């Protein structure tokens, strides 16, 4: 039997929340989070859980015009929480005379249940987090290389390919990243999808080029 993944996303906020509401009702935003969350693969595999605080502002049309992570856990969870808040843009009702400079703070709580996390110790999880952060630096070096490939030195790409192999970034990995982007397109998250497609591009692959042309111009 496959393990079941339960994602609990709790939403609380600052005093400003009393002045605005989600268009679909009292529990609308909580339901929206549960329906649209794509739990990042690394954090899911390594039982990384916790709360990401996202600060955001709404304009008079209920659209998110500013957002940032004010307290994070790990960049993959941070970016998912930020993506969800941005995806909620236009789904808010604001009253007449609403102060659009006020920040709303949304704590998004990521919890895994029934995913064998009981067998993971806190040390296991911290070791995984440190490994992830180290790999982020290597991933960024690959991205920077392909972004500036015109300035590459002879033979440098061989080293970059070695780093990609070390990170396990192969065709299967890139295909999964494209699938994630297409899922975001279905959710209406064009920005998030284009970030995934561009990631594939800056791994030196042309696999996502057609999607970049179709969705990201």
Automatic annotation (TrEMBL):
Keywords linked to the UniProt accession: Membrane, Signal, Transmembrane, Transmembrane helix
Taxon lineage: Bacteria, Pseudomonadati, Bacteroidota, Sphingobacteriia, Sphingobacteriales
Pfam families, per database record: TonB_C
Signal sequence, renumbered to the chain: 1-18
Subcellular localization(s) per the UniProt record: Membrane
Main location: membrane
Membrane topology: Single-pass membrane protein
Origin: domain of life: Bacteria
Any single Gene Ontology cellular-component annotation: membrane
InterPro entries in UniProt: TonB/TolA_C, TonB_C
Swiss-Prot/TrEMBL GO biological process terms: transmembrane transport
Protein name: Energy transducer TonB
SUPFAM superfamilies recorded: TolA/TonB C-terminal domain
